[in-house]
């Protein structure tokens, strides 16, 4: 719809009203003036007829004289004079020859006059070819006995074109006046429209400010003093509305900010999706978990943002059924595989209409891995403990069954029992050591004191020396003097011992194990020290490397057991190194040898 300006709403009605008024006045005035003129002229004609009636009456008997009288009087008074007999034939006429004129009996003025009255008529004369006003009076014999009998009619007529002309002139003046009036009225309307619409212009400006969220300028204040009451009360209403809006928007904004804070500081990953599966919002945790830039995701389709069919299927189900869903899904990305626990519920708007879905996602990869480790650990401990116990029980039963009688066999059996119980002892020692380190680390960390590294390495190697010599393996220590590291020397020594024992165990006779330390720089240039225990033994197959530091994990079951290993050595090493805030890495090649590298904080003395 095309909107018109206010002036175009007012002006046409104004114009119509003015034109109607002028037309009515003109019509009424014209009619009155015409009536007045005609009445005046008619009265004048009747009066003039009355003046000459006596002469005409006298001349009725002498037609030729009557005719010349009519012609003469008619010329002098600029009036057409006609005398008609009672049978309608024209006796005399001031302008025409009576013989050529038709019978006048039916003319209205004649009919009235013959009946004894004053007849008059306004009509177009075909004889003279113009509009004429006729007035007729009866002529009676004044002295005759039948004085009421009309035997002739005297008719006077004047053309009314003069009246018409006068009227046309009056109408033209009224027309010119009308144009002036309309122009003035137009100007007034323009001014009026301007006056009415000016406050609205200001209010429109203000309303646009309101729409932009700027409620600082009050409408009523910014209006001029002389505005109409209706405009002022409209402005006041709009100010009230703006105040309410401002309050509502502020409340919503506060609420939204609080929600935003909650949303972004949540540890759980949260994604909100609309009905078309477009992302409404995604928090920072979700961005991190799913490898998505959280700020750029809103408005995009979920399948574009997160490429995971399972998640899409679950969300699709919630969107179609409205029922909440809880499930675990596998998510693969560049970093590998993650196990995600997803809880999806449908999202409702203020009118309880379903508008999308909300997914809360937890990364349970670590949790599930820990659960598996714990389960495996319990199974492993039971298994590790059961093996020596079963063995001990078997030998003791055999002894009781009679083998005790054979002293030699009995001694060999008892030696095995002793070995197995030592093994049990070793396992329990290692388990206790592990739990002590773990507990120490959990209860605020173990106590670290800065000390020279060389001493710890020497002491560790010394502990292993006898076993190494027995295996025919040499040990070389390469540690520059003056390296200081914050450490718990007892624990660190145990870690090095475990590594050296392993290196000796898995070396061949004649091999050499190297224990070396060096200063270096870590990320960001922090000084650090690396301790490496390197052997040239059997090495470890690559598939075992990731799990090597788990409890009871062995790359070579048979050999480890035969060598008296508990499978806990490296787990202990890892925990000790972690308690020092360090890192342990392994490099190994089957048949070539292995190298275990501990990285700790450290510096030169
Ligand atoms: P274990 O007591 O059996 O030695 P560890 O936890 O110390 O247990 O070691 C775990 C496994 O790692 C061992 O069973 C062994 O198979 C492997 N391993 C450890 N150190 C070495 C090494 N230096 N050379 C080859 N294999 C090794």
Structural write-up:
With 605 residues, this protein is of the alpha+beta class. Helices cover 52% and strands 21% of the residues. It contains 15 helices and 18 strands. The strands form four sheets. It has a five-stranded antiparallel sheet with strand order 2-1-5-4-3. It has a five-stranded antiparallel sheet with strand order 7-6-10-9-8, sandwiched between helices. Strands 12-14-15-17-16 form a five-stranded mixed sheet. Strand 9 (336-348) and strand 10 (354-363) form a beta hairpin. The chain starts with 5 loop residues before the first helix and ends with a strand. The mean pLDDT is 89. Adenosine-5'-diphosphate (ADP) binds at residues 498, 502-503, 506, 535, 537-540, 548, 553-556, 560, 565-571, 594.
Please summarize what this structure is.
The chain is α+β, with helices and mostly antiparallel strands and 605 residues long.
The shape is rod-shaped
Average residue-wise pLDDT: 89
Distinct ligands, ions and cofactors found in the model: adenosine-5'-diphosphate
Q: First CA to last CA: what distance? A: 90 Å
Low-pLDDT runs: none
Oligomer: single chain
Rg over CA atoms, rounded to whole Å, is 65 Å
Strand order of the largest sheet: 2-1-5-4-3
Tell me how many strands there are.
18
Largest sheet at a glance? Answer: 5 strands, antiparallel
User: Which bin fits the share of residues in helices?
Assistant: 40-55%
* Tally of helical runs: 15
Strand content: 15-25%
Structural class: alpha+beta
């Amino acid at each position: 719809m095309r909107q018109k300006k206010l002036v175009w709403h007012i002006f046409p009605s104004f114009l119509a009203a003015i034109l109607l008024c002028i037309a009515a006045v003109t019509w009424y005035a014209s009619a009155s003036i015409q009536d007045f003129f005609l009445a005046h002229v008619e009265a004048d004609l009747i009066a003039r007829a009355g003046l000459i009636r006596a002469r005409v009456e006298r001349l009725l008997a002498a037609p030729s004289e009557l005719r010349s009288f009519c012609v003469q009087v008619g010329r002098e008074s600029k009036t057409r004079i006609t005398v008609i007999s009672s049978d309608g034939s024209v006796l005399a006429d001031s302008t025409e020859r009576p013989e050529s004129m038709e019978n006048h009996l039916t003319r209205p003025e004649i009919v009235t006059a013959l009946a004894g009255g004053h007849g008059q008529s306004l009509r177009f004369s075909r004889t003279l070819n113009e509009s004429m006003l006729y007035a007729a009076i009866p002529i009676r014999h004044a002295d005759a006995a039948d004085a009421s009998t009309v035997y002739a009619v005297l008719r006077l007529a004047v053309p009314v074109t003069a009246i018409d002309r006068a009227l046309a002139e009056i109408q033209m003046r009224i027309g010119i006046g009308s144009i002036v009036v309309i122009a003035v009225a137009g100007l007034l309307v323009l001014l009026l429209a301007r006056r009415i619409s000016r406050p609205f212009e200001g209010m429109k400006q203000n309303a646009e400010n309101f729409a932009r969220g700027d409620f600082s300028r009050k409408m009523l204040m910014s209006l001029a003093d002389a505005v109409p009451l209706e405009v002022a009360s409209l402005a006041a209403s709009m100010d009230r509305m703006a105040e309410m809006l401002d309050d509502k928007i502020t409340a919503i904004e506060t609420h939204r900010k609080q929600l935003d804070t909650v949303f972004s500081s949540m540890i759980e990953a949260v994604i909100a999706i609309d009905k078309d599966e477009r992302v409404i919002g995604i928090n920072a945790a979700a961005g991190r978990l799913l490898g998505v830039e959280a700020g750029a995701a809103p408005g995009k389709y979920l399948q574009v943002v997160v490429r995971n069919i399972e998640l899409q299927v679950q969300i699709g189900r919630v969107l179609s059924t409205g029922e909440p869903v809880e499930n675990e899904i596998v998510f693969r990305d560049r970093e590998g595989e993650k196990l995600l626990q997803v809880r999806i519920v449908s999202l409702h708007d203020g009118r309880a209409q379903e508008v999308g879905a909300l997914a809360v996602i937890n990364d349970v990869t670590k949790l599930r891995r820990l659960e598996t480790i714990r389960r495996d650990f319990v199974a492993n401990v039971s298994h590790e403990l059961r093996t020596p116990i079963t063995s001990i029980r078997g030998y003791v039963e055999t002894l009781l069954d009679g083998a005790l009688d054979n002293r030699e066999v009995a001694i060999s059996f008892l030696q095995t029992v002793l070995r197995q119980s030592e093994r049990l002892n070793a396992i329990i020692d290692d388990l206790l050591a592990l739990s002590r380190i773990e507990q120490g680390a959990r209860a605020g960390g173990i106590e670290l004191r800065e000390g020279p590294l060389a001493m710890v390495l020497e002491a560790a190697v010394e502990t292993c020396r006898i076993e190494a010599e027995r295996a025919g393996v040499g040990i070389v220590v390469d540690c520059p003097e003056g390296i200081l590291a914050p450490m718990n020397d007892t624990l660190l020594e145990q870690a090095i011992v475990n590594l050296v024992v392993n290196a000796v165990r898995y070396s061949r006779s004649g091999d050499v194990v190297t224990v070396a330390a060096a200063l270096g720089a870590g990320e960001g240039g922090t000084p650090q020290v690396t301790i490496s225990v390197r052997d040239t033994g059997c090495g470890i197959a690559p598939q075992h490397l990731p799990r090597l530091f788990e409890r009871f994990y062995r790359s070579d079951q048979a050999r480890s057991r035969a060598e008296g290993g508990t499978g806990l050595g490296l787990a202990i090493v890892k925990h000790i190194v972690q308690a020092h805030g360090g890192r342990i890495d392994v490099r190994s090649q089957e048949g070539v040898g292995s190298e275990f590298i501990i990285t700790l904080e450290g510096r030169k003395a």
